[in-house]
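Methods — Computational structure assignment.
A single polypeptide chain was analysed. Its primary sequence is given first, followed by the predicted tertiary structure written as structure tokens.
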Amino acid sequence: MHTKQTSSLKTSGFYSVLFTLLSVGCLHAAEPIVVKENGGWCWFQGKRAVGSDGKVFFTSISGDDHGDWNAGDLVVTELNLSSGETSHFCLHATLQRDDHAVAGLCLLADGRLLAVYGKHGNDHFQRSRITLRPGDISEWTQEQRFDAGAGYTYSNVYRLPGEDDRIYNFHRGRGFNPNCNFSDDGGSTWKYGWRLMQRTSADLSDDPRYTGMDGRRPYVCYASNGRDEIHFIATDDHPRAYDNSLYHGYYKAGNLLASDGTILAPPTAAGQPLKPRDFTEVFTGTAARVAWASDIEIDALGNPFIAFSVQVDGAAMRNRRGAGGMDHRDFYGRWDGSRWHVHEMAHAGTKLYSGEDDYTGLVALDPQDPNYVVISTNADPVSGMPLVSRTDGQRHWELFAGTTSDGGETWTWTALTKDSTQDQLRPVIPKTESDTRVILWTRGTLNSYTDYHLDIAALPVPR
């Protein structure tokens, strides 16, 4: 394990971008800069980036050998928002060349940082490390392994002060389904908790919405209110396996609840787990409208707001892997305390690569502003026309900022990147104490989840 400090050139680079942006006061005044060479991430881990005391911490996993990193290196980066200085710590060298193996980060009550991670189902281990001091990633505890009882994938780590600081880690594990482990001592030791929901082969039998390919696992994104609730959105299954709908529920005080607060069941290790469809349906899927979760956050009133993608062109080809995925739409949903309001936001473009018809550039919600999103798309958000760069004549994924003043019914779009020579993908907006929004994303080439050449870029945007 090693630390790596960046050069002064990168330090001054981020600061100069920030200064220019705030001085000129317009989005196009800033240019994105690389804050971490050689890094990628998946989107079913949380949080990939967190803010504290004027810093942003984020996690990434190297896709190949460049930028002084080796393929599969799992790294945490610290970005100082005042000085622009960045530093990096390798949590686990050559863990796995797979973006599913990226960590979930959680700030502890004393300001130290907990990182939880694992491989892409290749072993049973939930791995974790904790910084020795608040706000300093230069030294960590030794890696701890906890046997999750089945192949382990995805880490979603949330601390609930309302439960005496119990920490939950939701992951895919037993039964190839979402489960949780928990810690009552700040992440030092762990115990198995319970299965959040269940999907089995029997659920697919004789179901006309099953495509006959793959299946048997919901996909879940999580968010916490920072006190006593953990919210989630879930699909029925993998989108190539099933004509997915999308559901919302949450955990609170030992119970699983629907969106309106109706108690559905207490989660117990021995009990009969709920099905995804037992939670509140937010979007109804069909062969012509297949949903996949992108992001979820909680607003200042404690209400969830969400983003998800929908494949709209594959109805005639649902039983042929790789045949569809040329037309996706990004959707936005918001719970007002009594019902869900769901609207199509934008054209999300085509699939990222063959074999995964439902992989899109993704949407990042701003945890501090439900009226602001960043999307990655290779189509004009409004017209759907292909985005062809005037620089190299190729079609690329670009970033757009979207704002709404009517709860998501209509959106105004502003290009954050334009005429790129590489793809701008998978944005993330961490919660910070700053009046500047920091957008992070992966930039480069993504051929598959195990074959990518990406860097992590950043752009500061005033709130």
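Note: The chain has two domains: 1-159+442-463, 199-431.
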